Amino acid sequence: MNRLKHSGFYKLKFFITPEEFNDVLKLFEQKQAQFSRTNYAQTKHDHTQVYEAYEKFYQYFIPQEKPDYHPFFVYSISFTADHESSGFFVRNESIRFPYLQQWAEDELPYIMFSLPKGFQIDLEDEKGKYYIYEDIREHQPLTYTFFNEVANHIKKITTPLRFFAHAANALQEQKPPFRISKNAINDITNSWIFKKYKLVMTSK
Q: Which of 65, 81, 164, 176 is the S-S candidate for 95 at Cβ 3.0 to 4.6 Å?
C-alpha cells in the first residue's frame, strides 16, 4: 500500500497585525484549543501568552529601526471536537528576496498554519505491523472543517503579497506564496526592512 498517498499538509501562509491575530485566537478559544510550545517540556501557553508571543514576533518587523532580538513564534495546537482529537501547527517562516546582484541578508516574515492531510491507520498482516495514511477529511471531518473556518477568516482580511525589489539593474516584482492584511501592509511599508532595501509595495 502507498503510505504517501495522503502525505503533506494543508497550509495557509499569512502576515496580519496582532489585533487581527487576536480575532483568530478567539476562534480557537471557542473550540477550547490548547497551545503548546514545541520545546521538550511542551509548555502550555494560554491565549494571552500566545497573543504576546505573536505581538513580539510582529513588532520585530514593524519599527523603523531593526530590533536586537530574534523573532520566534512556534506552537503545536491540540484540538478536540466530539470524538475527534487532532492537532494543528503554527510557526514563523520567511521568504528571501533579491537585492542588487544577490539575496538580501534579511527576509520577509510570515506565519504558516498547517494541518496534516493524512490520518495514520495502524495495520498488521503476516509480515508484521505497519501503517498507512488515509484522508483526514474522512476520519476527522470536524477538524478539517475548523481548519477551513480559520483559513477562510484569514483569507477574508488578506490579499496576496506583491512588491518590487531591486534585482540586478531593475525593479522586479516579487510574488511570494503568502497573504497579508491591509493593516499589516501599512505597518511593514514604513518598516526598517522596506527602508533598508528600498522595497516598493504593490499589494492593496
A: 176
